[in-house]
Amino acid sequence: MTLGILGGGQLGRMSAMAGLRMGVRVKLLAPSVSGPSLPFADTTVADWTDADVLRQWAADCDAVSVESEWAPADALAAVWDGPIRPGPQTLHLIRHKGRQNQTLAEAGLPLPRFALCATLDDARQSAEAFGYPVLAKRYEGSYDGYGNATCRSPEDLARAWDDLAADDGLLIEAFVDFEGEVSALVARREGGERAVYPIVATEHRQHQLHAAWLPAGLADGVEEEARRVAGEAIAAVGGIGLLAVEMFVTRDGGVLVNEIAPRPHNTGHLTIEACHTSQFENHVRAALDLPLGDPAAQVPAACMVNVVGSREGAVAPDLAAALAVPGAAVHLYGKPDSRPRRKLGHVTVTADSAEAARQRGEAAVSALAL
Amino acid sequence: MTLGILGGGQLGRMSAMAGLRMGVRVKLLAPSVSGPSLPFADTTVADWTDADVLRQWAADCDAVSVESEWAPADALAAVWDGPIRPGPQTLHLIRHKGRQNQTLAEAGLPLPRFALCATLDDARQSAEAFGYPVLAKRYEGSYDGYGNATCRSPEDLARAWDDLAADDGLLIEAFVDFEGEVSALVARREGGERAVYPIVATEHRQHQLHAAWLPAGLADGVEEEARRVAGEAIAAVGGIGLLAVEMFVTRDGGVLVNEIAPRPHNTGHLTIEACHTSQFENHVRAALDLPLGDPAAQVPAACMVNVVGSREGAVAPDLAAALAVPGAAVHLYGKPDSRPRRKLGHVTVTADSAEAARQRGEAAVSALAL
């Protein structure tokens, strides 16, 4: 079987490795030469918006998946009639924060209060109704804190409008004074079979994921509710493949959906070591419409810590120092150049407790000195 | 860092994947096109006994390892002065069953009684001394039962001599009425640092590995003794990298070394899922002289079952059926053609008990229908 992936970054790299293990051929199509995809013989570098390129590349694929919601799935769908998973409709829906929120709300899923605001006046009224502070979010292309603004006053809101509003306006969300942020990976097949992973707790630094661990330390009822909400959210957007649902846990034990990512997710990297079936393997399985694997944890606890660039320049990790940390599974993505905030790799540690795993994960990341 | 591996089979494939995960570049050199090495961009297919080929290929390697004791390490050593791990001397020693046994015996390690027999008369005298049955073993090139014969009489012995003896004769070993067969994976660095894995119990069918599992079910003292013997055996042969020691456990709880393999080993494939650091990762680490990873099990139990060809023809696994078995980690090596006894892949299952893991592993292998 052959799976094509539009993308040449770390998500494609780790998906390719999961496929290879099972004897599945994984082809990557990337718009430019990329370190993560370099080791794979089946990598094509070409203009991936070109109809001929797409048609030719996909011709021998049983299915195609995407590494990001911005990959040219629509262009592929126009010239190839094989299965794209997740499908262009799901990607279209998720790409736009307004459409995404509306779809989830219509499915009865819990979200922060939100409003789709076509004008600055609409935004002001919504902010008054929710009470300041509110979050202003660009509809498209926001990530890791980019494209979002916390507004504490009408003046902040006016500034955010100028910076972020598109032709169809801006999303305003009530600020959630959350207890914690969590994530659920969900694999889902055509027909609806799904596998929901154990909830992962997350910590962000400067709006970028820093660490993720399991167990998340939630009360049983909250863990169960978060998994239910995540599973239904992915069904609501018609997601096929592996998708992630980021959620807030509120101080009263409620769960609110923050956002969906239609692809394997940084919060799920620890599943490689921690779960019977990794998010990448289940992504490959779901994309090829193969039975899903067991998402349950196979260890008592695990923690992943991101390896993020701190400066410009060539990537020169002190691998020996990191590998000296007991139990550290070091993942580096093969990116030749670093820059601040660039994701270069991650370290996962499995242990008897998330705290013990976290401590060693942090030590190994520091030791890499990137 | 760049590691070269002489070989293009499943051991090179899985070592390459372990290296890639850590951001290590792994180059393969294979004498002919091979399915397992096909997915890797850094695969060279060329006459690997050719001095120019070897010199050029190894030029940018920090170290080179081998996939088998028969790889052209000597030819490489003649034209390249970088580190080959394990070294040609170790490979030379292990390749010849007589030299191997003598070295281990001189180091005081427990072995079945054996004799290096230069003539058929010598062999007859040794067999009389040990008592029939005895094993006759070709000094070089025996594996999976090939090159060995069980002799129950002087007539059997004469036949074995005709079939198997080389210019320097034949190895005669006393027959061991063992309780069980076990294996230990040992990673060892220059300078002697070593990591000995938990003992793996093994079951052979028609002289070929069928299943391997841990825990091995040995009494504490026997497990400890087997790990001690394995670690010292690898030190005795000067092994650097990941090597395997196959042993017999006798009915009185003793441990006897059967043989050493100077490379990652089929009995260690389960370490990918079961241990903090897989045999392949520790092979890459040791070969590059990086700190060794924790070999301890991270799950209560695991079992690996081999996927072996039963007929001639194209490999067409029923992947969907195998993946429907809960918890089955399916590994297929990308070999396009099957034949009886060819190793095509394996399945590992982690579980609370080796028995539960074994049952599901067998089910998944049967489901593949290869």
Describe the secondary-structure layout.
Two copies of one chain form a homodimer.
Chain A: E1 2-6, H1 10-21, E2 25-30, E3 43-45, H2 51-58, E4 63-66, H3 73-79, H4 88-95, H5 97-106, E5 114-117, H6 120-130, E6 134-137, E7 148-151, H7 154-164, E8 170-174, E9 180-188, E10 194-196, E11 200-205, E12 208-214, H8 220-236, E13 241-249, E14 255-261, H9 271-274, H10 279-287, E15 301-308, E16 313-314, H11 319-323, E17 328-332, E18 337-338, E19 343-351, H12 354-368
Parallel strand pairs in A: 1-2, 1-4, 2-3
Antiparallel strand pairs in A: 5-8, 6-7, 6-8, 9-10, 9-11, 9-13, 11-12, 12-15, 13-14, 15-19, 16-18, 17-19
Overview of the structural elements:
Two copies of one chain form a homodimer. By secondary structure, the first copy, chain A, is α+β, with helices and mostly antiparallel strands. Chain A has three domains: 2-84, Rossmann fold (3-Layer(aba) Sandwich); 113-174, ATP-grasp fold, A domain (Dna Ligase, domain 1, 2-Layer Sandwich); 180-368, ATP-grasp fold, B domain (D-amino Acid Aminotransferase, Chain A, domain 1), CATH 3.30.470.20. Chain A has helices at residues 10-21, 51-58, 73-79, 88-95, 97-106, 120-130, 154-164, 220-236, 271-274, 279-287, 319-323, 354-368; strands spanning 2-6, 25-30, 43-45, 63-66, 114-117, 134-137, 148-151, 170-174, 180-188, 194-196, 200-205, 208-214, 241-249, 255-261, 301-308, 313-314, 328-332, 337-338, 343-351. In chain A, the strands form four sheets. In chain A, strands 9, 10, 11, 12, 13, 14, 15, 17 and 19 form a nine-stranded antiparallel beta sheet that branches. In chain A, strands 3-2-1-4 form a four-stranded parallel beta sheet, covered by helices on one side. In chain A, strand 11 (200-205) and strand 12 form a beta hairpin. In chain A, helix 1 crosses helix 10 and helix 2 crosses helix 3. Chain A is globular and about 55 Å long. The mean pLDDT of chain A is 96. Chains A and B meet through helix 1, helix 11 and strand 17 of A and helix 1, helix 11 and strand 17 of B.
